[in-house]
Specification:
Length: about 425
C-alpha cells in the first residue's frame, strides 16, 4: 500500500509538470553546475560525470527519479530544526525541470544557450592551494582482508604560526579510502612519540588518550568522507597550526578486490592576516557502547559544559553501519534547551557536515548534548551481523557515537580550554 501510494504521488507530480519545453543546454545544465558537478566529475565521489550533455543524457530517467524521491543531492537534516548554508536540496522548480526534461525525451537544445563550464582547479574544490602536503610514501592496500587504521606523521617545518583559511584532503585512490582525518601535533606533544616521519603505523587510540592530556592531543584540521566538503572558513575566522607542528593523518582503508596504492594529500590556503576568531573542533562521544544482539533502538548520550564562550558554526555526526539517528542540543545557562541539528535518517555512505546559516553564540556554562540511536536488528539492511554484540571500535563492523562541532573562539582559546570540566564525555578528540 505504501509503495502504491508513493508511485501514485510520483505520477501526479510528474503529470503536473510535464509539458513545458525544457532542454539540457538552457535549463538542466545550470542546475547541474550549481548542485551536482562538484561531486559528479572525474576524481570525485559521484559514480558518473555530469559535465556534458553526452554524459548526462543516459541518466535522464535515473536523475528524475533520484530528485523526485529526494535521494539526490544527499541531505539528511530534519528541516524543522535549524537552517544550514550548505543545504544542497533542490527547489521544487528545479525538481520539476528534471521531470520535464526526462518527459520530453531529454532534448539537448540550442548550443547557443549552453553556459560556460565551471573551471575546476586541478581537482581542488578550495581553489589552488598555497601549500600541498602529501604522504611521502605510498601505502599498499591489499586486495582482500581488512586493514588496521594507519597513522602517518608528516613534518610541516612551519617556522611561524600558520592560520588556515581552507583545507582539503584528497585521497590518492578513493576506491580504497574509506575516510581520512588530518590533525596538527604541536611541538612537545607526547602523542605518537617515537613515530618515524612518513612511515605508516597502527595507532592504539586508547593508549594515546591515556598518555596525553588535552593540551597534548593533536588538533583536528580537516576530514574526508564521501560527500563531505572541504573545510572553508568565513573571512576573519581560521584554524591555527602552530610553528613546528607536524601533520598527523589517520587513514581508514577498505580493500576492494585488487591491490592498489594510495598517496593521500592535503591542500592548504592560508589566511592573509591573523584572524579575529580561531576555529577549533570539539566532540561529543560515548566510548562505552555495548549494543545487544538484535537490538533495534539502542541509545547513547554524551554531554559536556563549555568553560569558555564560543560560537557554534558547524556540526557533523559520525557513526557506522548501525547508526540511524543523531541529535545535537544546547542547554543554555538559563535552562532553555534548543535542538540545533537532528539527523533522523543517518546514512553511513554520506557523512555530511552541516554549516549553520546563522552561527549560534553559546555563553560560558552552556551544556552541549548529543543523542544517538543504533539499529542492530535484522531489519537494518546495512547491519553486518545482527547476532553480534557491538562495542566501540574503529572498523566499520564496530560502532562509534561521535558528534563533532566546529566552534569560533577568541584567538588565544584552544579546544581543551572549552571542555576542561571533569564530567566531559568529549575526551576522545
Amino acid at each position: 500500500m505504501v509503495l502504491r501510494t508513493l508511485s501514485f504521488g510520483l505520477f501526479l507530480s510528474f503529470a503536473a509538470v510535464a509539458g513545458p519545453n525544457v532542454t539540457f543546454n538552457k535549463d538542466v545544465y545550470p542546475i547541474l553546475q550549481k548542485r551536482c558537478q562538484s561531486c559528479h566529475r572525474p576524481g570525485e565521489v559521484g559514480p558518473m560525470a555530469l559535465l556534458t550533455y553526452q554524459q548526462a543524457r543516459p541518466w535522464a530517467k535515473a536523475m528524475r527519479e533520484a530528485v523526485m524521491l529526494k535521494k539526490m543531492p544527499p541531505w539528511f537534516a530534519d528541516p524543522h530544526y535549524g537552517t544550514f548554508s550548505n543545504n544542497p536540496s533542490l527547489t521544487q522548480a528545479e525538481i520539476d525541470t528534471f521531470a520535464n526534461w526526462a518527459a520530453a525525451g531529454a532534448p539537448e537544445g540550442d548550443a547557443k544557450e549552453l553556459g560556460k563550464p565551471v573551471e575546476f582547479i586541478d581537482g581542488w574544490n578550495i581553489g589552488k592551494p598555497d601549500l600541498v602536503v602529501e604522504m611521502p610514501n605510498a601505502f599498499h592496500v591489499p586486495p582482500t582482508g581488512y586493514v588496521d587504521y594507519q597513522t602517518i606523521v608528516i613534518p610541516t617545518n612551519f617556522k611561524q604560526d600558520m592560520w588556515i583559511q581552507a583545507a582539503e584532503l584528497r585521497p590518492g585512490d578513493r576506491s580504497v579510502v574509506h575516510h581520512v582525518t588530518a590533525f596538527a601535533r604541536q611541538p612537545g606533544s607526547l602523542a605518537f612519540a617515537g613515530a618515524e616521519p612518513g612511515i605508516a603505523f597502527r595507532q592504539d587510540r586508547e593508549k594515546q588518550r591515556k598518555l596525553t592530556r588535552d593540551i597534548d592531543r593533536p588538533e583536528y584540521i580537516v576530514g574526508y568522507t564521501p560527500g563531505r566538503p572541504a573545510s572553508e572558513f568565513v573571512p576573519g575566522e581560521a584554524r591555527l597550526i602552530k610553528a613546528g607542528s607536524d601533520i598527523v593523518l589517520s587513514l581508514h582503508y577498505t580493500p576492494n578486490g585488487k591491490a592498489v596504492e594510495d598517496k593521500t594529500k592535503i591542500g592548504f590556503i592560508f589566511a592573509k592576516e591573523p584572524p579575529k576568531r580561531r576555529v577549533v573542533n570539539v566532540m561529543l562521544a560515548d566510548p562505552n557502547i555495548l549494543i545487544p544482539p538484535g537490538e533495534p533502538n539502542y541509545r547513547t548520550d554524551a554531554s559536556f559544559t563549555l568553560q569558555e564562550p564560543a560560537t557554534l558554526v558547524r556540526l557533523w555526526p559520525h557513526m557506522h553501519t548501525r547508526g540511524k539517528y543523531y541529535e545535537y542540543r544546547v542547554v543554555f545557562p538559563t535552562g532553555e534547551s534548543q535542538v540545533v541539528l537532528r539527523v533522523p535518517n543517518f546514512d553511513f555512505a554520506w557523512q555530511l557536515s552541516y554549516n549553520l546559516e546563522k552561527p549560534l553564540y553559546l555563553p560560558k556554562g552552556t551544556r552541549l548534548e548529543g543523542t544517538a540511536y543504533f539499529d542492530n536488528s535484522p531489519n537494518n539492511p546495512n547491519n553486518p551481523d545482527p547476532k553480534q554484540e557491538v562495542h566501540w571500535g574503529e572498523q566499520s563492523w564496530d560502532e562509534m557515537s561521535e558528534g563533532y562541532m566546529d566552534m569560533a573562539v577568541e584567538p588565544n582559546i584552544g579546544p581543551g580550554d572549552l571542555r576542561r570540566a571533569k564530567e566531559s564525555t568529549a575526551a576522545l578528540n
